[in-house]
Specification:
Keywords: Heme, Iron, Metal-binding, Monooxygenase, Oxidoreductase. With about 400 residues, the protein is an alpha+beta fold. Helix content is about 50%, strand content about 10%.
């Protein structure tokens, strides 16, 4: 731990460049695996940076990311309304586990697989538009951000005309410092009102979408209100399905183009698309804040006993670069297998949308390799800039040429 009297460093840490990890990660993994940090709110928490420790805590069903206890640290600079705070839904504990079970029944691999052709058609359309306006573009704005929100709206049965609203609501849910409290409150109220109306319409006229299916399954929740369940679902999909995947598309392409031999390797062997996506997820040094956990009862991590009432932040990206878990962890190896990275979490609260995210990333990469084999970064990789002020890490722009 830190020396007595020494102030905990501010977190998230600054990085040398948009695609490189903060220097603190390696130092903490070696010398201080349970490290005090200061959050955007000014509150203190503890940071885990090693693979085994992060996996242990994420796999423990006693602890969740809902930081609603009186002594939990505030993650953001805002009073409430963030994805980890009291602005989340009130579905907790056993009800939360039941909700996850319910979503598992509705959000199946079969449903995701059936969406793949539509995802590919959306990606093709967006690439068509880029080509029309080319031969250069901001890949983040032209493809990365529109695609996942289109996919989520398609999944929820939301009209295409409302896609921009969903993108804005997603941003406010993930604010660390970007939005003021009144903006977050207004956006959450708008989002909740929209979804209530949407659920009512779907109850009257069900369609082939996730919300309609949840309505038909909701009796399984034993008394939980349909509205609450669907709001939680839509919010979870927005947070996990839009921002994270949108940012990952840009980062994935930037990582693969930062060293041109990686792109050439994929052009020569498209069978590497699947493992390449996994390696991009593992190697991502700009994942964002990480996953917090509120310690509701004493637990021992890395020879340190954490008392009840502690807030812990798990750095997934640091864990994924731990040499104890991955050979040559600092290197990007598109053939790496197995690749048990933790970017989707671990244990009972791992990301429910991971199969959808993987499908989107693999599909986007396939379409880009097919349609734009000469794709290249239009600026040096170290000139790329990070998006700031949000829980999810990403790039401001990904300028490309072809």
């Amino acid at each position: 731990m830190s020396d007595t009297g020494q102030q905990a460093p501010h977190y998230p840490f600054p990085a040398p460049s948009a695609l490189e990890p903060p220097q603190e990660w390696a130092r903490l993994r070696e010398g201080c695996p349970v490290a005090p940090i200061r959050l955007a709110s000014g509150d203190e928490a503890l940071l885990l940076t090693r693979y085994a420790d992060v996996k242990q805590l994420l796999s423990d069903p006693r602890f969740t990311h809902h930081l609603v206890a009186d002594d939990a640290a505030n993650i953001t600079a805002n009073e409430s309304g963030g994805v980890f705070g009291s602005g989340g839904t009130n579905v907790r504990g056993d009800a939360h586990r039941e909700w996850r079970k319910l979503i598992g029944k509705a959000f199946t691999a079969k449903r995701v697989s059936a969406m793949q052709p539509r995802i590919e058609a959306m990606a093709e359309h967006l690439v068509d538009e880029m080509i029309k306006q080319g031969p250069s573009a901001d890949l983040a704005a032209g493809l990365g951000f529109p695609l996942p929100v289109w996919v989520i709206c398609d999944l929820l049965g939301v009209p295409d005309a409302d896609r921009d609203k969903f993108a804005y609501w997603s941003d406010t849910l993930l604010s660390l410092t970007k939005f003021a409290q009144d903006e977050i409150d207004a956006a959450q109220a708008d989002f909740a009102g929209y979804m209530r109306t949407h659920v009512t319409a779907k109850r009257a006229e069900p369609g082939d979408d996730l919300i309609s299916e949840l309505i038909s399954l909701v009796g399984a929740l034993d008394g939980q209100v349909t509205e609450e369940v669907t709001l939680m679902t839509a919010k979870g999909l927005l947070v996990a399905g839009h921002e994270t995947t949108a940012n990952m598309i840009g980062k994935m392409v930037a990582m693969l183009l930062a060293d041109r031999t990686r792109w050439e390797q994929l052009l020569a062997d498209p069978a590497l698309i699947r493992p390449a996506v996994e390696e991009c997820l593992r190697h991502d040094a700009n994942f964002g804040f990480g996953i917090p956990r509120y310690i509701s009862e004493e637990v021992k991590i890395a020879d340190t006993t954490l008392p009840a009432g502690t807030t812990v932040v798990c750095s997934l990206s640091s864990a994924n670069r731990d040499e104890r878990a991955f050979d040559h962890a600092a290197d990007m190896d598109l053939t790496r297998s197995p690749n048990p990275h933790l970017i989707f979490g671990a244990g009972p609260y791992s990301c429910l949308g991971q199969s959808l995210a993987r499908t989107e990333l693999q599909t986007v990469l396939k379409v880009l390799l097919d349609r734009l084999p000469t794709l290249a970064l239009a600026v040096p990789a170290d000139a790329l800039e990070r998006r700031e002020g949000l829980v999810v890490g990403g790039l401001q722009q990904v300028p490309v040429t072809w």
